[in-house]
Amino acid sequence: xxxxxxxxxxxxxxxxxxxxxxxxxxxxxxxxxxxxxxxxxxxxxxxxxxxxxxxxxxxxxxxxxxxxxxxxxxxxxxxxxxxxxxxxxxxxxxxxxxxxxxxxxxxxxxxxxxxxxxxxxxxxxxxxxxxxxxxxxxxxxxxxxxxxxxxxxxxxxxxxxxxxxxxxxxxxxxxxxxxxxxxxxxxxxxxxxxxxxxxxxxxxxxxxxxxxxxxxxxxxxxxxxxxxxxxxxxxxxxxxxxxxxxxxxxxxxxxxxxxxxxxxxxxxxxxxxxxxxxxxxxxxxxxxxxxxxxxxxxxxxxxxxxxxxxxxxxxxxxxxxxxxxxxxxxxxxxxxxxxxxxxxxxxxxxxxxxxxxxxxxxxxxxxxxxxxxxxxxxxxxxxxxxxxxxxxxxxxxxxxxxxxxxxxxxxxxxxxxxx
RNA sequence: GCCCCCAUCGACUAGCGGCCCAGGUCGCCACCCUUUCAAGGUGGUAGCGCGGGUUCGAAUCCCGCUGGGGGCACCA
Length: 419
Fold this sequence. Notes:
- This protein has 4 domains: about 5-70 and about 190-260, Rossmann fold (3-Layer(aba) Sandwich); about 75-190, HUPs (Rossmann fold), CATH 3.40.50; about 275-325; about 335-419, Arc Repressor Mutant, subunit A (Orthogonal Bundle).
- The protein is about 45% helix and about 10% strand.
- The protein has helices at about 15-30, 55-65, 80-90, 145-155, 170-180, 210-215, 220-225, 240-250, 265-275, 280-290, 300-310, 320-325, 340-350, 355-370, 375-385, 395-400, 405-419, and strands at about 5, 35-40, 75, 95-100, 100-105, 110-115, 120-125, 135, 160, 185-190.
- It binds one RNA strand of 76 nucleotides through strand 5, strand 7, strand 8, helix 4 and helix 9.
């Protein structure tokens, strides 16, 4: 029997990175086994449904490169089927009416258990199982009924979900048993925590896929990072192409203990992915990123700027602040300037021919010698005058890109400010 | 309160009885490189929660404790 899994978000808001983590494990499992990965929107709670959410979820998954097979399905569409099955259960005495709702009759003795792929045997005493409502008094099925019913109808073979569903599992198992269906294999993976050990939330940092996208993370980096929370192919490998992750992923290697979302490590990893890109691919990413952010910076210059920052930023979102001086005016702090030194630099740069990074370097190095000063000392005020900051891309390349006229004008302006 | 789950450096993890006085990665610290910031290089810091067993031998198996998390809805 071929593998069939499903990703089941509820449309209550933006796609949460914790949800992506469990979806990713589903996706990895299916893709590594020629299986099918379905997308089911669990919208039985209409009161909490957020308009737009369904579209946003799909957009976020698409951006991450996590695809699905077949059409997107909606749990509410299984309403009639659920009602029909519930009626059948009532007929057979497995369920009963209760104030307009239908409750499933759970056994009172014995235990209900299953062999969880990541946790081993889990058992619940049946006396703990309440008679759950499977159909509300308004006719809508509840999650605990619709979910196993759909798993059955979709022929899901492996239910890979968050461990907050562990206590739902015995109930769903009993329902499936009453329906005469062989239950799927269950794999409950731990939820991702914030640095304080609490469930990852807004106050820890970015949590929605959109936020990560806006901050300038690469989908591949995010996927690589997420894959390594709760799973490892071995003790050594850290950076892995997506294809390798797909190939090596197994549920058996998934850890049962919860992992913490380490933003610092993600930043590092994103930097690795950014630096690994070819210069062309990197420029493409930068152009696309800025365009999505609504930037009106001319593309030609953006492409020319890209190589200056590829090794310097860990997230694309840092680029605007870092390279803004190439696209607009600067406001240097007079205290960081030095009039005599800037005048000397102005003289030294005025005759540079051609206006290239190499020629600029030669001229500035010579200036340092003439002044008998260390480059770090000489370049600081020039950098501030030209870029408006003590931190910038390489000075020679920056000057070259800015052009002789603008560069000299900014240095001249620096002299005036410092005077 | 009841039920369930989890427990290796600050973080992600390797380890599935001897190869481990515990390995890799991030972070952090130091040094090197250096026009700033990064990147890069080298070295370092730091851990098996506690207590009992089992065994010739335990991070690895068992029990208890402690700590953390989750669930107990006509939410998903």
